[in-house]
Amino acid sequence: MALIVEVLGHHGEVRFRRVLGDGPLTIGRGFDNDVVLDDPYADVGHARVVRGEDGVPVLEDLGSVNALGGPDGSRVRRIALGTGTEVRIGRTPLRFRSSDAPLPPALRDQAAERRRVPAWLTRPWGQLGVFAIAAALMVWNAWSSSYGDSGASDAVAAALGLAILVVVWAGIWAAAGRVAVHRARFLAHVAVVSGILTVVVVFGWFSSWVTFFFPDNPLSSPFAWAGGVALLAALVAGHLHLASRMARGRRWIAGLAVGGAIVVMGWLATLPKRREFSDVPTFAATLKAFPAAWVPARDLRSFRDVEVGLQHRVDALRATHEIAAGRSDEDAK
User: Fold this and answer.
1) Rounded to an integer, what distance in angstroms lies between the CA atom of residue 225 and that of residue 231?
2) Which domain holds residue 22?
3) Mean pLDDT, residues 314-332 taken together
4) Integer Cα distance of 203 and 215 in angstroms
5) How far apart are CA 281 and CA 108, in angstroms?
6) 142 shares its domain with 251
7) Per the domain annotation, does 189 fall within a domain?
8) What is the end-to-end Cα distance of the chain in Å, rounded?
9) How far is CA 221 from CA 214, 224, 286, 333, in A?
10) pTM for this predicted structure
11) 122 and 70 in one domain?
12) Widest Cα–Cα separation across the chain
């Protein structure tokens, strides 16, 4: 069983490991040491690890300015080392561990998972393209929902406000990723939320038309709630894929938990707004108008032909009725 020295960061992360051999091991700020410390409070040759007479490794101070920081915070010149011993050289913490200490399982390779994404989505122009598509859909969605004179300006203003929210949202996740995995990936986070917004718009169109054509369909509401949970889960899982080292299963579990909680809170918020029964039909969604060419219709000439045909049929039915009525009168006489 060998002893390993670990150089720790200020937050407890391991920056460097070195196996202690049979010979002495020097530690300090000088580049000729076995363990080089980037610490202005450490001497050029600060300490060394040697084997004592009983074979136990010992950390000895080499006459440094700040000596050695013991486990209890005291300044000492010599410390016996064992598994779990923690010391401080300058302001750099060191920890000694056994070579057979248990370690957590290996993390899933995030780079291998990213290869499943199309190459253009990993490039800045592709990510900006997804954002541009989402912004265009938002402008069209807001414009088609407005029937006033200022519909275009209102649509642009609404889309601009939403774009600002997207940038702020992506910035928060980028900051979290910078802390967790030391990579911001701001444009990638923008692409994630933009892609989800695109699906939300398309899903909203489809859901509104299904509800309009099939108002009594009992599956419309559960389908909408399930779709909301799935989209929120995909949004959270996508951000966690970029801003954490979580495995795929855990990312989706976290996304489903967040999405389910938000949908449940939204459903509970709608309960007080429910009204008594009314015979006036209501429809929550705003249907988007189709182009006239898409709507099956007839021109005025065709309508006039239909009207003339109906008039002829009415005249014929009236004549038949009059003839039948005259025969009935003759039979009665």
Assistant:
1) 10
2) 3-98
3) 75
4) 17
5) 53
6) yes
7) yes
8) 130
9) 11, 5, 16, 68
10) 0.52
11) no
12) 146
The count of domains in the chain is: 2
> Is pLDDT larger for residue 15 or for residue 224?
15
Asked whether the predicted pLDDT for residue 315 surpasses 60, the reply is yes
At 162, list the tokens. 């939403």
| Across 179-192, average pLDDT | 87
Q: Are 43 and 62 spatial neighbours (Cβ–Cβ below 8 Å)?
A: yes
Least confident of 12-16, 20-24, 185-189, 220-224: 220-224
**Mean pLDDT in residue range 56-60:** 91
Does residue 333 fall inside a structural domain? no
- 3-state SS of the chain? CCEEEEEECCCCCEEEEEECCCCCEEEECCCCCCEECCCCCCCCCCEEEEECCCCCEEEEECCCCCCEECCCCCEECEEECCCCCEEEECCEEEEEEECCCCCCCCCCCHHHHHCCCCHHHHCHHHHHHHHHHHHHHHHHHHHHCCCCCCHHHHHHHHHHHHHHHHHHHHHHHHHHHHHHCCCCCHHHHHHHHHHHHHHHHHHHHHHHHHHHHCCCCCCHHHHHHHHHHHHHHHHHHHHHHHHCCCCHHHHHHHHHHHHHHHHHHHHHHHHHHCCCCCCCCCCCCCCCCCCHHHCCCCCHHHHHHHHHHHHHHHHHHHHHHHHHHHHHHHHHC
pLDDT over 80 (residue 238): yes
Query: What would the two tokens of residue 296 be?
Result: 């099956």
